[in-house]
Design a protein that fits this description.
By secondary structure, the chain is an alpha/beta fold. It is 25% helix and 24% strand. It is built from nine helices and 15 strands. Strands 1, 2, 3, 6, 7, 14 and 15 form a seven-stranded mixed beta sheet that branches. Strands 10-9-8-11-12-13 form a six-stranded parallel beta sheet, with helices on one face. Strands 4-5 form a two-stranded antiparallel ribbon. Helix 3 packs across helix 4 and helix 3 packs across helix 7. The two termini are 14 Å apart.
Length: 338
Amino acid sequence: FKPKKFQERDIDIEIECCGVCGSDVHTISGGWGGAPMPLCVGHEVIGKAVKVGDGVKTVKVGDRVGVGAQIWACLECKPCKSDNENYCPKKIDTYGAPYPEEMGGVIAQGGYASHIRAHEYFTFKIPDNIPSEEAAPMMCAGLTTYSPLLRAGVGPGKKVAIVGVGGLGMYAIMWAKAMGAEVYVLSHSPSKEEAAKELGAKEFISTLDNDWDKPWAFTFNFMLNTADATDRFDLAAYLGTLDVNGQMHHVGLPDKPLPEIKAQMFAPNGCSMGGSHIGSRPEMFEMLKLASEKKLKPIIETIPISEAGCKKAVEGVAQNKVRYRYTLVDFDKAFPNR
């Protein structure tokens, strides 16, 4: 693949490892719509800066850095100037998005590769005490869950419900606990109760039980839905567990539409629903600082990168076999002559 044109704020990164995200599976399968093929996926990248542009001020050659799900924004519009560059209307995703002609006119390619070229603003130095294989999934899954928790004011005195214990839910539980909230997990997989409590959940609530929601009416200040099966939810039951003016916030993005929603569903407790897209550069650094200072340890499985390794990882995510996040490693062995 041909990279974008190298510009003054660009950084070339020799990749050490890359997390495997549900987004990779949705893209490869076509679940989120068509993608430009052939395509190299992967947007949870950790590696070493090997070339920096003349305008780069925050990274030097040799630094260990990360790149997440966004690789460029205009940095001039209203969202960008308010630390909301993740909502820039001109944003470029790390893979599958076209660069404009003045940047080379190529399609952005991801991190299942030897190298990646990224803009400085979307390149993040990694704290020394976070291992690379643990830092990689934080670049997307970590930020995607940290940002809405932070923006919702999650902290001491708040009761937070996390829906789903998977690659996103793991981080959501861990962050909410570290931020000082009382954490409850809602899941249809009772086998995940032990892991949920190890990560910081106070209570595990099985949504398989009849009337599971009734004892929890008016309980949660904030609900973060990380599940990939919302199309099969009884949304009224979930919304009914929220306190007055509570919010159900979606970061799990299934292929299928949400169930039918009626305006009356929001009336009994004045609740609301929303969603978000990854997070901002300041939020990324806050998240990494929290993980570093509190020595937070996600549950990660590593797989050597190869054709077979990529197949195993992508199928494992698609079939919900992973516990709870894969990181592809051993890039030096796969790319010995880079």
